[in-house]
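Could you help me review a protein record that somebody else here produced? My question to you is simply how this chain folds and whether the tokens agree. Thanks in advance; the entry in question is below:
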Amino acid sequence: MSLTLATVNPGEPEIFASLQGEGPSAGRPCTFVRLSRCNLSCTWCDTAYTWRFEGDNRPHRDDLAFERKANQVVLDEADVAARIMALGQDRLVITGGEPLLQGAALARMVALLEGHRVEIETNGTVAPHPALDPLVAQYNVSPKLKHSGNPTEIALIPERLAAWAADPRATFKFVIADPADLDEVLALQAAHAIPSERVMLMPEGTSSTFIRDRSRWLAPLALAHGMRLSDRLHIHLYGDTRGT
């Protein structure tokens, strides 16, 4: 059985050790596994190489199309687990793409690991596989707002948002590009009874300049509403690069 991963270079899977750059675990040493494929298509996505392959006409601001063979690799689940163990960290971040699209294979892979706290980054539209869910310590749920370019009916599924709100392992991380985006966050929070302490606001941007500029007006909004502010530490440290 196998998993479909993104690549750092052609044929080289994106499995690496680094510091978590955003969300509730920011600054912690982790192993990262980036899976390929996504059911959404955010116009500002900074990992479009996981889904916008040649022939995919879904809009993206860079309008780039990636060759599937060079940007996607299939590995045996045991091989993925062995690579994770070899990196020697005790925390694993599974990201994408949308990782929960491969829930059954992930469950089999994670079951092979020893001594890892597992967190999964998800867009919140896919339910965790029942075999995977008990193995996960933390969900970083990032529902996509209107500025992502995704139709609301597929990006913001009420029953899924309600389920995440009821799961204490889930933190909601909203990407904010404009102060007006907060109105949408507040409406979703009210509709699904999401506690403010489990809401993080993160500036959209793939450069330190953009992130810092947006953080200046986003920080007082987070403070006013009792929400947390997320930086993008990896961008400041490494730039917008793969495997970091």
